Amino acid sequence: MTNITISPFNRVEGDLDVEVKYEKNKVVDVKFISRLFRGLEIILRNKDPWDALVITPRVCGICGGSHLYSSASALDMIYNAEVPKNAVKIRNVLAMAETCQNDIRHTYLMFLIDSTNRLYEKYEFYPEILKRWTPLVGSSYKEAIRWSKKYT
């Protein structure tokens, strides 16, 4: 069995390490390890609870809606608010749309492009990576832009 550790995994998730175990060209185990502490709890300490609606969406440049949703849900719990059923449905639809858009953008436009780095050219599939994920010209990169626009 062979072990490979990639650390950091890429520039977007600089806090993320990946440990891969494989045997005979088959992955048998993968572990993702994140050690990042963002400190939101410290940032929000002694602030008005409503400030979370403004501060938390700005923590991440791509998934602000998810942080906003979480903050709104926390405020709902704090104030024991009864959220109307239609409001819950709207929140859920918006959360699903953001998740779809973010998964595409994060994966193809921010994450996979790091694999085009020449550090990986020793891998046999590197030419295919370049063909698909090179920024602005890669086939999957261009398709990701096209698809992610459908959610805006």
Structural summary, described in words:
45% of the residues lie in helices and 14% in strands. By secondary structure, it is α+β, with helices and mostly antiparallel strands. It folds into two domains: 1-36; 39-151, no CATH class. A hairpin with a 2-residue loop joins strand 2 and strand 3. The chain is globular. The mean pLDDT is 89.
| Strand numbers in spatial order across the main sheet | 1-2-3
Q: Helices and strands, in N-to-C order?
A: EEEHHHHHH
Count of beta strands? 3
Radius of gyration: 20 Å
End-to-end CA span: 45 Å
Largest sheet: 3 strands, antiparallel
Q: Mean of residue pLDDT?
A: 89
List the helices and strands and how they pair.
Blueprint: E1 2-6, E2 16-23, E3 26-34, H1 40-44, H2 52-55, H3 64-78, H4 85-111, H5 126-133, H6 139-148
Antiparallel strand pairs: 1-2, 2-3
Helix pairs in contact: 4-6
Descriptive terms for the model:
152 residues; alpha+beta; 2 domains; 6 helices; globular
Brief rundown of the structure:
The chain is α+β, with helices and mostly antiparallel strands. It has helices at residues 40-44, 52-55, 64-78, 85-111, 126-133, 139-148, and strands at 2-6, 16-23, 26-34. β2 and β3 (26-34) form a beta hairpin.
